[in-house]
Amino acid sequence: MKSYDAQYIRLPQLSSLTLGGGPLCSRHRSVAKGCALLLGFLCFSWLIYASRVYLFSQQRESNSVISGCEGCSTSVSISISSSSSPDGVAENTKTTTQRDELEMQTLGNRKSAGADASAEKTYAVLQRLVNGAESTRRTGTPHQKLLFNDRHDLDLDLDEGSDDSAEKSEEQKQEKSQVKQFFFFNPRPGARDWADFDDCDEDRICAMTSSVEDADVVLFNAARMKHVESLPKRRSNQIWVMYSREPPDLPSMDALDRPDLQNQVNYSRMVYSDSTWPVLYGVLEQMASPPEKDYENIFQGKRYDVAWFVSHCDRPSKRMEYVRRMMSTIDVHIYGECGNWTCGDRGYTMGGQKDECLEKLSQEYKFYLSFENTLCRDYVSEKFFNIFEGVDVIPVVRGGADYRKLFPSDILVDANDFPSPESLGTYLHFLGQDETAYIKMLRNKNGYKKGRYKTNFFCDLCERAHTGEPRHVYKDFYKWVRAPGNCWKPKDLDPL
Ligand SMILES: *[C@@H]1O[C@H](CO)[C@@H](O)[C@H](O)[C@H]1NC(C)=O
Ligand SMILES: *[C@@H]1O[C@H](CO)[C@@H](O)[C@H](O)[C@H]1NC(C)=O
């Protein structure tokens, strides 16, 4: 039995099987009969089951079954798996019995007539791929595998010189080139290693593959390169992409400094704004009608000045040292690993008592320290955006980003505007006493909410895989990541 790790791909919406089957059948008279039969089965299954149904037909040799169809409007699925004979006869002998199942699936709902047309096309391409695979499978040559859909894959035998027909193999190769294949080379264990092509251009088909050699796009986790001893052998026209959400001065990115990466990385998805696709942890959206609140009452309820939730104390930004010095001019309550305050029953930890802590923050504190652990240009983490979800507190920021450029200036206090931690503390102390000024700023801040940053990353990449444009390569990716001035040591901690 041959089995493969499941990977994932979503195809453009395939909303009607009839649409998919029609042209397929007309284009391939040889399978027309089978199609008719198939469609019959599908309608039958549609009538009987509300959810997915497997229709299963079995022959001794190779056969295919199209199965599943939720109301024929949402889902059709294809997978092929091959198995050797039950008695365990070696695969390379001619006695091998193969049983193939064919299942094709696309998820999602009908969106437009355009989606139908594209679904039809996708289906036709896949079907031809499968037919091609069927015809060459018997030669016993090794398979390549395209991975389509949730836990279903598509085995392909794309070897040339199959004795069936060279013509067919040529056609098949052409069809295959219509599907651009993605491969995650070194994903973080447990992290998602498939790309979502749900909302992509319907004329561009992309899928995950299990084979790095055949991939059109290889994605590397920039923070995990130290685990990579040798880079994959690069196929011509393969696109290499480096990605990471981490701040680029992370020590693990030292491993990007290797000669074999020079002139290899085409695109990047990193926190820098000049990355091909910058990583943003959030965006602020101005609300059309901010919630009306009794701000005087809110102000009266605030018993304390400053809170800070933190779990890692010793960081490149030296924020702990900074806060300790601030504490000479203003009270700061430190929650979490690095302080003595707790909220909820386990203190503040990510995924712990977050709601309870934010509630307390909202009611009892005037300011919240959104201090980054590292000072790198453009890097603003979720620590900042999280309090734009209905928390009545003014953010005090300290980081490497240009907050003034990125956000309205009357909704936050930027430590960068102060020569020392002590002077920041003094300012906060006075602002916290000035009810009018404080309420004005809080009201402004509450006019914004955290919005989801929608990225087109996978679709853009899919598009580029198809067009090969625009061409780009980082001469020295490491140098770009660690260029002087990208990250820096704190400059606001000089002794007074
Ligand atoms: C926590 O309490 C201990 C003992 O009272 C004190 O020495 C320490 O400085 C406190 N830590 C912070 C971060 O306030
Ligand atoms: C990607 O980089 C390779 C190696 O430098 C190069 O040959 C290729 O043209 C680049 N592709 C794109 C799309 O930029």
Produce the secondary structure layout.
Blueprint (H helix, E strand, L loop, with lengths): L16 H11 L1 H20 L64 H25 L6 E4 L6 E3 L9 H12 L1 E6 L20 E5 L7 E5 L17 E5 L23 E3 L13 E4 L8 H7 L2 E6 L9 H8 L5 E4 L18 H11 E7 L10 H4 L8 E5 L4 H4 L6 E2 L6 H13 L1 H11 L2 E4 L5 H11 L9 H5 L15
Parallel strand pairs: 3-4, 3-5, 5-6, 6-7, 9-10, 9-11, 11-12, 12-13
Antiparallel strand pairs: 1-2, 1-4, 8-14
Helix pairs in contact: 1-2, 1-3, 3-4, 6-10
Organism: Elysia crispata
Family: Belongs to the glycosyltransferase 10 family.
Keywords: Glycoprotein, Glycosyltransferase, Golgi apparatus, Membrane, Signal-anchor, Transferase, Transmembrane, Transmembrane helix
Question: Can you describe what's shown?
Answer:
It is found in: Golgi apparatus membrane; Golgi apparatus, Golgi stack membrane. It comes from Elysia crispata. Belongs to the glycosyltransferase 10 family. The chain has helices spanning about 15-25, 30-50, 115-135, 165-175, 295-300, 320-325, 355-365, 380-385, 405, 420-435, 435-445, 455-465, 475-480; strands at about 145, 155, 180-185, 205-210, 215-220, 240-245, 265-270, 285, 305-310, 330-335, 365-370, 395-400, 415, 450. The strands form three sheets. It has a seven-stranded mixed β-sheet. Helix content is about 30%, strand content about 15%. A hairpin with a 6-residue loop joins strand 1 (about 145) and strand 2 (about 155). The protein has 13 helices and 14 strands. It is α/β, with parallel strands linked by helices and about 500 residues long. Helix 1 (about 15-25) runs antiparallel to helix 2 (about 30-50) and helix 3 packs antiparallel against helix 4. Residues about 1-30, about 40-120, about 130-145 and about 145-165 have low confidence and may be disordered. The structure holds 2-acetamido-2-deoxy-beta-D-glucopyranose (2 copies). One 2-acetamido-2-deoxy-beta-D-glucopyranose binds next to loops. One 2-acetamido-2-deoxy-beta-D-glucopyranose (NAG) binds near residues 334, 339 and 340.
